[in-house]
Write a structure and sequence with these properties.
The structure is a homodimer of 393-residue chains. Chain A is of the alpha/beta class and 393 residues long. The first copy, chain A, is built from 16 helices and 8 strands. The two termini of chain A are 36 Å apart. Chains A and B meet through β1, α8 and α9 of A and β1, α8 and α9 of B.
Chain lengths: 393, 393
């Protein structure tokens, strides 16, 4: 097992009516002028935005609003936010939405505290030294950004989707009311579940597989989410199971499920190129690729896949045929994806065949022009990436 | 399920050689003059104390030392610490040891920031508004105080053992090197494991049993610790399994295993009277009482005990006899305690029969003179407490 650091300072306020504490929390964490950052119309339609603004008014906290964040959040919106915050002397960013809004808020918070171009951080040209405080009212469980140190932004100029990780951007608080997720469309709910589970699986499929406690916690989380999504599909207003998924989303990406392991994250990296090129939903892209990644790397550590098959997917263990058991686990996962109406191939994802040129382009970008590998379970070079995209086509 | 708050800001630095980062961490969290607080001779003998002092010297951080903290840490030592810190203008408390040292450090940190008598907090006469920063170098996994908001102090004047819980006292950081636990005697290791598991079980045996994710995580933790302690008993220098126990100790009491549940904590309250009266090890006291508590409250929620029996203790589920399965789970737990050379009765704990007067005295004190109940799985009044002490005698 590896040494590890674990740092999750985000204060979680979880449950129905929890959003009523938002203004109070902003005050407590020093906010005096707030950017209320959000996505599309749903935060407006649901009344959540108005409710939060009324709260801020009542608490005497000034604010400006900036909506229009889209999935795969854009650098142009981040620039717009930084400019607005500078002009309005904002000192606290409140993200109301899911991972895209939170990531956009984090990028604004970094940029506001930096004299250069915020994209420097995502290109590896600079390391952030400060970051303005971010708080969140979560409405889409998926990315886990509400507790994580991650921030993923897409630069339209060249369709580059890049991540920047730093503890500085971990939100001060996250307000999480499962009821706010009732109105999420089934497709978006499913995408979220795929992402949540993948955050855990990316850490679970590690070659340092001797942190038993982490493995057991990861399996517990995966089983719970897998069970709860069926309940939620049958009944979207099931508070109890919406709550399991929502809380799992945070725990899946705050570091808990990776303590002592290296993690792989190759599927995430491969998917970033898919969503950068085709602007598809991240979760759906992960589902489209995972089975192919799994079959491609299986032989690196068959027993790990057997463990996954038995402990997570509930596949009977054929002790005489570990590889058969492992493959049955991968198949069971793909069946699960299909139950969620998630694609298990790129063509199922984008609605047409992917071309050889597109595959070469994605592998070229993912390997930064054939200069780097991704993953850890098996280190994947450009040729491996192409092979996996082809298997998944 | 219940609404919940989850707040665990403590930075964990886990692994071998992690203690080499201690002075750096103190500096980062603003310490300029440190109280190095510790227990008996073991921190001196192991060389750990010298090593930390050399680090502080090298980092240019001044310090004073105060040792002599005993298990069931005393209020008198806390007073001594506060006085020393005032005189020496200490602004950071470093606890080097286990739960007793950390709790003593927390109490000093509260008292240093308060003009009145620090015991006020433990008597419920005042609420802390400030607390000096505490950091820890953990050497005994058990109490979970390195990440928790809890602090338990014994007032020798009347042998009162009281807890005070507040997020203010959550340590800034915890340095955790599993190697530092190799030299722990078997008895102390076992006491720690009982305490770790009990922190999880006190939250698990709840009547709000519909936070599935929390239940699954709790069971994962209990199974892991239960497995690892056998490995450690066979081989005290087993890094991997010492590590599981150490990390489980923190997660068991940082709030994670109680998200969405009410918790019970009756066994802890009953035990506090045992260790206040007989000055026994807390973990051993818990083992002596738990089986009796469990049998006494079983009928309040048989299915919960069945779940524990099957999912944690690995007892085969007799679907025709839930109560039989539940009882088999309790018996399996007591067998596990005996495997660890832990007592399963009060006489086994104190080496003689407990008297009726002593039982009445403990129940009297635990019920604050028959004015309050404890527990939640079943609310226990003074008569219930006496009955459980008698069952456990």
């Amino acid at each position: 097992m590896k040494n590890f650091n674990y740092y999750t300072p985000t204060e979680i306020v979880f449950g129905n009516e929890s959003e009523s504490q938002t203004a109070h929390l902003i005050r407590r964490y020093g906010g005096t002028k707030v950017l209320v950052h959000y996505g599309g119309k749903s935060a407006e339609r649901s009344g959540l935005l108005d409710e939060l603004c009324r709260q801020l008014d009542a608490e005497g906290i000034r604010y400006v609003k900036l909506g229009g964040v889209v999935s795969n959040p854009r650098l142009s919106k981040v620039y717009e936010g930084i400019e607005l915050c500078r002009r309005e002397k904002v000192d606290f960013i409140l993200a109301v939405g899911g991972g895209s809004v939170i990531d956009s808020a984090k990028a604004i918070a970094y940029g506001l505290a930096y004299e250069g171009d915020v994209w420097d951080f995502f290109e590896g040209k600079a390391k952030a030294e400060r970051c303005y405080p971010v708080g969140t009212v979560l409405t889409i469980p998926a990315a886990g950004s509400e507790m994580s140190c991650s921030c993923v932004i897409t630069n339209e100029d060249g369709s580059k989707k890049r991540a920047y990780d730093d503890d500085l951007s971990r939100p001060k608080f996250a307000v999480m009311n499962p009821e706010r997720t009732y109105s999420l469309p089934a497709y978006q709910t499913a995408c979220g579940v795929v992402d949540i589970m993948m955050h855990t699986m990316e850490r679970y499929f590690s070659q340092d597989d001797d942190m038993t406690l982490t493995d057991e916690l990861a399996e517990a989380l995966l089983r719970t989410v897998k069970n709860s999504i069926y309940k939620v599909m049958a009944s979207p207003e099931n508070y109890r199971h919406r709550a399991q998924i929502m809380w799992a989303g945070s725990l899946a990406h705050n570091g808990l499920t990776g303590c002592g392991t290296t993690g792989d994250f190759a599927t995430h990296m491969l998917e970033h190129e898919l969503s950068a090129l085709f602007d598809v939903a991240h979760g759906a892209g992960l589902a489209a690729l995972w089975g192919s990644w799994a079959r491609y790397v299986l032989k690196e550590n068959v027993s790990r896949f057997v463990r996954f098959a038995v402990n997570v997917m509930g596949v009977p263990n054929d002790f005489t045929d570990p590889e058969g058991t492992a493959l049955a686990g991968i198949e069971a996962m793909e069946r699960f994806y299909r139950d969620l109406s998630m694609p298990t191939s790129i063509s199922g994802l984008i609605g047409r065949d992917v071309t050889d040129d597109e595959i070469r382009l994605m592998a070229e970008k993912c390997s930064l022009g054939n200069t780097c590998t991704i993953g850890n379970f098996k280190k994947l070079d450009k040729q491996d990436m192409e092979a996996i995209y082809r298997m998944a086509r």
